[in-house]
């Protein structure tokens, strides 16, 4: 597992990267992560999150646009553990998570706006692999995202740490 440092990536690739506005907290067991973007756009319904974390996520980061809702958690411990067991590098949620104490011990990068103990309804709603925009950046499926305690950056191509 590569340890990414977003300041170093910003310095090495200034012409490629876009920096997401500071809005996320780091909750996962991995303090840095990166990979190919897979997106979900869903408001207060994590049905699509449940579906995607059950698939092979090796080298990928799930970017969930929950519309910034702070009323329900789009991710909990069971889905985080499922994502980790299926090789996902991380999950970035424009919304909330719950079961933080367990997620902090899970081998998965997780960044979200906040926590909320209330789960979502399961209505089967949401779009997969569509462009989503939040934090001043467009997240395009097939592009790449990198996250650590310094922030979140997006690149149209994979980046490697300088001197790797």
TrEMBL record:
It is an enzyme of class 4 (lyase). CDD domains: RraA_family. Keywords: Lyase, Metal-binding. Its EC number is 4.1.1.112, 4.1.3.17. It comes from the Bacteria. The keyword Nucleotidyltransferase does not apply. It catalyses: 4-hydroxy-4-methyl-2-oxoglutarate = 2 pyruvate; oxaloacetate + H(+) = pyruvate + CO2. Its cofactor is a divalent metal cation. InterPro entries: RraA (IPR010203), RraA/RraA-like (IPR005493), RraA/RraA-like_sf (IPR036704). Belongs to the class II aldolase/RraA-like family. Catalyzes the aldol cleavage of 4-hydroxy-4-methyl-2-oxoglutarate (HMG) into 2 molecules of pyruvate. Also contains a secondary oxaloacetate (OAA) decarboxylase activity due to the common pyruvate enolate transition state formed following C-C bond cleavage in the retro-aldol and decarboxylation reactions. Homotrimer. This is 4-hydroxy-4-methyl-2-oxoglutarate aldolase. It comes from Oceanobacter antarcticus.
């Amino acid at each position: 597992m590569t340890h990414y440092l977003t300041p170093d990536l910003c310095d090495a690739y200034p012409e490629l990267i876009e920096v997401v506005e500071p809005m996320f907290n780091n909750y996962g067991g991995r303090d840095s992560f990166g990979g190919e973007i897979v997106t979900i756009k869903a408001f207060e319904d994590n049905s699509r999150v449940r579906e995607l974390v059950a698939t092979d996520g090796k080298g990928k980061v799930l970017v969930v646009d929950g519309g910034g809702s702070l009323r329900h958690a789009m991710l909990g411990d069971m889905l985080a553990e499922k994502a980790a067991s299926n090789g996902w590098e991380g999950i970035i949620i424009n919304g909330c998570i719950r079961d933080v104490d367990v997620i902090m011990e899970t081998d998965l990068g997780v960044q979200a706006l906040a926590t909320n103990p209330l789960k979502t309804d399961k209505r089967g709603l949401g779009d997969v692999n569509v462009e989503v925009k939040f934090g001043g950046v467009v997240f395009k499926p097939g592009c790449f995202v990198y996250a650590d305690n310094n922030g979140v950056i997006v690149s149209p191509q994979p980046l490697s740490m300088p001197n790797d």
